[in-house]
Amino acid sequence: MTKPLKQIHLAAHFPGVNNTTVWSDPKAGSHIEFSSFAHFAQTAERAKFDFLFLAEGLRLREQGGQIYDLDVVGRPDTFTILTALAAVTERLGLTGTINSTFNEPYEVARQFASLDHLSAGRAAWNVVTSWDAFTGENFRRGGFLPQEERYSRAKEFLATTNELFDSWRGNEILADQATGTFLRDAQAGAFVHQGQHFDIQGRFNVPRSPQGRPVIFQAGDSDEGREFAASSADAIFSRYATLDAGQAFYTDVKDRLAKYGRRPDQLLILPAASFVLGDTDAEAEEIAKEVRRQQVSGATAIKHLEWVWNRDLSSYDPDGPLPDIDPLLGEHTVARGRAQVRMYRDPLATAREWRELAAANNWSIRDLVIENSNRQNFVGSAQTIADTIDNYVQADASDGFILVPHITPSGLDDFADTVVPLLQERGVYRTEYEGTTLRDHLGLETPAGTVS
């Protein structure tokens, strides 16, 4: 019996807080003007994408005590942008990254419930944690939370917000015969939560929203992160670049669901992916090489190496060999406010591995960084990219992709015009939205008690 074709999920990542964007391209636009966000979102909706995704940085990054200005380092407030985008789109999901370490459940629940109302059911929350005291200095509790407790707080934070969302579930409207007015059940919005991180009670003042709760995304790749996603998330980001690695991650995370009483289709696996289109595969390969050289300048390559070495490496030639000295261990003092720093939990092992790669391939520092920092990259003609995306999804290496273009805001335009029609012709991608909410787009159940 032939296995039915899986439907592909696509989303768009507005590329901020990153070194993906090629600023030198004449088509590169602003990361703060609303017209950039509007163009990007409306292109994604024209292509029938599931959602737009915004990352967020809570502090300007530093390198060697100076503001790091080689890539995007910040952006206006997420909720403000997403609320504005709700007014210029109709179906596109609106996903925001909001930190569970430096916020409070009541405030975040109120903001997401409001966004879900204003967008008619299109809100989603990428739940992230923060581990560094440097970022925490911007907040009253700066640096108070030990790294090992960040997922403990995140789990309780999410559970608490769900209690707030659900505090309106099942509350009926009652008619007051004497006054002719309508009143909610006296228990509407009432909540009490006592736990390790939060001790709150009161009354939640935003009624049940169209989705009941926002769709929950999670991006952690550690064992704790995978468990958190399996227990609580609707979708998880993946960073795996090869088919085999993607399949292994997919199987591992999906296999964790059963212990929480969940089915495989209740959690989507959505890797981030960049892409370079050309009229032919050969042309796309040449464009991709130039894009990578533009993304990783010599200065960027040295700064990237400092994230691992925790040393000032400014005297090294980016087109020369890797340092023969070892990384400094202990608290990171060179690069501050960068999530990538925590990816290298064993700097000595990372440095050893990188030296071996560079020696085997005759790579310079810049060559190594270009290869090492390359994301899942679809390079080729529209037909080749459509084939590759479909192959990954049908082979259970993902359920779809979150696309990260290297040009903002017009970087999605060609993909929408050339690749999407090919996927639609295959019957693996929608030609029209069939529902109105983000849960509809993703094939996720709406929590019980939600008023439609």
Structure description:
With 452 residues, the protein is α/β, with parallel strands linked by helices. It folds into two domains: 9-167 and 200-282 and 376-442, Alpha-Beta Barrel (TIM Barrel), CATH 3.20.20.30; 297-372, no CATH class. The protein contains 14 helices and 16 strands. It has helices spanning 34-46, 78-86, 105-118, 133-136, 150-166, 223-232, 243-255, 281-295, 298-309, 347-361, 365-372, 382-394, 413-426, 438-442, and strands at residues 9-14, 51-54, 62-63, 66-67, 93-99, 123-128, 173-176, 181-184, 190-194, 199-203, 215-218, 235-238, 268-277, 335-336, 377-380, 400-403. The strands form four sheets. The chain has an eight-stranded parallel β-barrel with strand order 1-2-5-6-11-12-13-16, surrounded by seven helices. It has a three-stranded antiparallel beta sheet with strand order 4-3-14. It starts with 8 loop residues before the first strand and ends in a 10-residue tail after the last helix. The relative contact order is 0.16. The model has no long low-confidence stretch (mean pLDDT 88).
The biggest sheet amounts to:
8 strands, parallel, barrel
Number of domains: 2
CATH class of the largest domain: Alpha Beta
Shape: globular
Question: Count the helices. How many?
Answer: 14
CATH superfamily grouping of the largest domain: Luciferase-like domain
**Which class of secondary structure composition applies to the elements?**
alpha/beta
Order of helices and strands: EHEEEHEHEHHEEEEEHEHEHHEHHEHEHH
End-to-end gap:
38 Å
Q: Kindly report the spatial arrangement of strands forming the biggest sheet.
A: 1-2-5-6-11-12-13-16
Which band does the percent of strand residues land in?
A: 15-25%
Radius of gyration: 23 Å
The count of strands amounts to 16
Helix content: 25-40%
Mean pLDDT: 88
Question: Which consecutive residue ranges, at least 5 long each, have pLDDT under 50?
Answer: none
**What's the CATH topology name of the largest domain?**
TIM Barrel
CATH architecture label name of the largest domain: Alpha-Beta Barrel
Family: Belongs to the NtaA/SnaA/DszA monooxygenase family.
Pfam family, one: Bac_luciferase
Organism: Streptomyces graminofaciens
Keywords: Flavoprotein, FMN, Monooxygenase, Oxidoreductase
